[in-house]
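Loading example: each entry is read as two labelled lines plus one structure line.
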Amino acid sequence: QKEVEQDPGPLSVPEGAIVSLNCTYSNSAFQYFMWYRQYSRKGPELLMYTYSSGNKEDGRFTAQVDKSSKYISLFIRDSQPSDSATYLCAMFRGTALIFGKGTTLSVSS
Amino acid sequence: DTAVSQTPKYLVTQMGNDKSIKCEQNLGHDTMYWYKQDSKKFLKIMFSYNNKELIINETVPNRFSPKSPDKAHLNLHINSLELGDSAVYFCASSLGTQPQHFGDGTRLSIL
């Protein structure tokens, strides 16, 4: 079993839709959880960073962590064509970031 | 004023050659990393340096040798390049275990 599982998609939604992206993990030692966004031919950029279970909101983005289920989510409200990218979940193992495979999202106008 | 910059952006070379990729960060971070992203977009840690000291060395062939001349630089030298080395290599930096900031990658193609 991989340490971090993420459905690669692709996921296609119309503009304005609510998007839900998810990851599961197997290592209960993971403590810090991140979501990165990667546009084509660019490096990953940090979107959200959380430590504890619960929700964290930043504009149209909400990150949710459920440590008891080893499940994290990223919600995007009012999705825009500019949100079209690959979304990667990541979590720390020691000092190394362990990434999911990424979910490719396409938002059509 | 790019935060994490890598050179070159593209590298096309023959199998068996030796090549280097350079990375510099101007964020004042103390930890730098090399990641490999394969054709399926899977991003995997290769090395990590903290204050010029190697702290992570995942199962990477010893043809790959990182070098950190100072805290702001981390270079990657690859000997005897193989077809399977074709990938995008990303440099990243962080302050301790704070979130990592990534460069835009070096696209390596082996002919």
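The interface with chain A takes residues 4, 31, 33, 40-45, 48, 50, 55-56, 58, 90, 92, 96-97, 99-105 of chain B (CB under 8 Å).
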